[in-house]
Amino acid sequence: MEFSSAFKSSQHSIPSPNGAFIATLVPPRLFLRSTSSLEPIRIINVNPDFASRVSFIRWSPRIATESTSTCSSVSPLASRSGYFEGAATTKRRSGIDKTEEEGGSSMRILLADEDTVRVWDVSDAKWTAAVQGVGGGLGKIANVEFGRNADEVLVFSEFGVKLTLWSLVSGRSVEIRDPKFTSKGYGYRPCTSHFALLTRPAAHDVITIHAHTTYRLVNSFSVPTTDAQGLRWSPCGRWIAVWDSASSGYKVLVYTADGHLYRTYAAGQDGKVDGLGVKSLEWSPQGDYLAVGGHDKRITLLSNFTFSPVVFLDHTSTIKLPRVPVWQEQVSASGQRSYITAAQPMCPPTVSSLPTDANPRVGISTIAFNNPDGTLIATRNDSMPTTVWIWSLKLLSPFAVIVQHSPVRSISWHPTVPNLLMIQCNNDQGVVYLWSSTWERPRIVTTPLDRLLGKHDAKWIRPETPRFEVSSPYPGMEDARARQENRPMMMSGDFGSYFIGYVEEEGSESRQPPQKSPYAVTGKEPADYFTKMPLNPRNASNLDGTPSSSGSSSRSPGVATEEVDDTFQYRGRIFVQS
After folding, report:
1. Are the C-beta atoms of residues 108 and 119 closer than 8 Å to each other?
2. 346: which residues sit within 8 A by CB, 6+ positions away?
3. What string of H, E and C letters represents the secondary structure of 506-542?
4. Hey, what's the torsion of the CAs at 240, 246, 249, 251, to 10 degrees?
C-alpha cells in the first residue's frame, strides 16, 4: 500500500461522489483538494461562528451517465397510470434526463448547522446560496441532503414534523408533512426522478409520490404495515419495496411504480419462520434480485419477476466448507497482525442477547452487493459480529469467509473494482482490511498516523476518467502515470489528518519504481509502503454450488390525491448570489 503525505483534517472530511475532490472543514476555512494532483483547488472562507457549529457537510449527487443507467421500459402494471406512462424508457426525454437540466452537471457542497444551510459551487467562485430560518419555529435541522441534483436541498426538521424541499434556482420551497424518518424512508425513482416518501400522518403508514422539479403530489397510498421501516426503489424504477418492523413478523411488500400492491412476501405464513422478521433489505445493482436479511440468520433472494424465493443463504454457527478459504486474523502479543487459514470445521465467536434487549444482536444487519455487476455479496450476522461472509451468486455458495479479531464496523465494496472489499472494525484504530478475489490472502493495512485523534475512518475514492494528451513528449511517463492513477484509491485518517492510499496489485513489489517526472502523481515521497505476496489467483471454479429454492396481487386502498402548494417561501428565507 502506498500513501501520500498527510493532509490536515477534521471530523468533517469527505470525498466527492465523482472522486474528483476531497472536502475538509478546518474552521474557519473549507478546503477543496483535488484527488489527482493532491493540491487544493479552492479555499473557502467560512464565518467562524457558523463554522464552529457545523453539523453536516454534503456533496451534491453524482449524475449517472447513460452508459451506467439501469433504466428499462416501464412495466405493464405501471403503464395504467398516466403520469408514469412512457417515462422510464431507455431513451430519456428532455426535461426528464437530469443531465439536461440546469444544475444537473454542477458539483456543489453544503454546510449546515441547526438552523442555516450554506451552499457553494466548486467551479463558480462567485456563486453561493444560503437558506436561513429553516426550522421556522418547528425545531432544529435533523438532517440535510441534496435532492436529485445540485439545485435542490432537502431539509428534515426535528421530531419528524416536516420535510422542506428548497430550490436553489427559484428560491421557492415545498413542505411535506409527517415524514416518518429523517435519514431513510425516501428515494428518487431512477430515470424519472419521481420522489417517494414514507410518512405517518396518523396511526398508519402512507407513501406519497411527488413529481420531479415541482414536487406536486401525484399519488399517495396506505401501506398495510404495523410499523414500516423503509422503502427502496428498484434500480430499474419499476418497483418499490417496503418492509415491516421485525416485531411484526417476516413481511415485505412490493408495489408497482404507480402504487399498486403487486406482491406480499411473508415467510412466516406457513409457520416455517418463528420469531422476529426482516432486519435489512437491498436490491442488487442490476435489480435482478431483492435480498432480504432476516433475524433468522438467513438471506432470502427474491426474483424480480415473481418475488418468490430462489436462493437461501444461511449463516451457520459452525463453518464446514472444505473448498472455501476461511481466513482468521491473528494478533500477537507485540500487536503484529496477520491472517492464517483456519482449520475446519470452525466456530466463529458469537454473542448472545437477552430477551429483554430492545435491539437483539442477532440477524443479518449488513448486505453489500459488489459494484457494478452484483455477483458477490458481503454480509454480517450480528450474532457473529467478527465474521464477514462473501457469497458468489454465480456459484450460489460461499466464496470466502473472513473472521476478524474485533467486531466488524463496516463493509464497503470499491465503486468500480468489482472484487475489492474494505472491512473496518470497531477497536482496530488506524487499521483497514482489504480482500480481493485475485489475491492469495487478505491484506492488513495500517495508516501511517503518528497518533490517533478521535475516530479513525476510511472511504473509497471513485476513480476519475483518465485524461491524457496523446501528443505528450513523454509517452512512457504518461503510461506510468496512467497505471498509477488507475490504482484503487481510498481516504484514510482521523480528526487530525488524512492520507490518500493507493492499492497495489499483487506482485507489484517486483516492479521497478517509476522514474520521477514532471507528471508525478503526488509530487512527494510516499509515507509508507507495504510489500505484497506473489501472484497466485485462486481458481473459483473449484467451489461447489448448492442452490436452494422454496402470491397474490391486490390493490391498496385508494387515497385521494391533492396538489401540494410549492410557494412556502415565507416559512424561511433563501439568498442566492451569483
Report:
1. yes
2. 318, 319, 326, 328, 403
3. CCHHHCCCCCCCCCCCCCCCCCCECCCCCCCCCCHHH
4. 10
10 Å CB burial of residue 575 (0-12, 13-18, 19+) is exposed
Cell of 351: 454473542
DSSP label at residue 319 = B
Cα–Cα distance between 513 and 348 in angstroms, integer?
A: 41
Type of residue at 411: I
State pTM to two decimals. Answer: 0.80
For the ranges 68-77, 159-168, 380-389, 549-558, the lowest mean pLDDT is seen at: 549-558
Q: Closest by alpha carbon to 187, among 151, 163, 171, 159?
A: 163
Residues 6+ apart with CB under 8 A from 526: 2, 3, 4
Residue (of 431, 419, 429) closest to 506 by Cα position: 419
Q: How many CB atoms lie within 10 A of CB 318?
A: 9
Report the C-alpha gap between 541 and 543 in whole angstroms.
Answer: 5
- Give domain limits for the chain: 315-437+535-550
Say if residues 127 and 118 touch (Cβ distance below 8 Å). no
Interatomic CA distance for residues 59 and 156, integer angstroms = 17
Which residue type does 317 have? S
- Cis peptide bond upstream of 372, omega within 30: yes
Q: pLDDT for 520-566, tens place per residue? A: 333 333 333 222 333 233 333 332 333 443 333 333 333 333 333 33
Q: Is 99 helix (H, G, I), strand (E, B) or coil?
A: helix
Instruction: Pull the grid cell for residue 545.
Output: 454450488
**CB contact at 8 A, 342 and 370:** no
Residue 577 identity (one-letter amino acid): Q
What is the 3-state composition of the chain as percent helix, strand, coil, each rounded to the nearest 5? 10, 35, 55
The Cα–Cα gap between 156 and 58 comes to 14
Residues in the chain: 578
Q: Which helix (H) or strand (E) holds 53?
A: helix 48-53
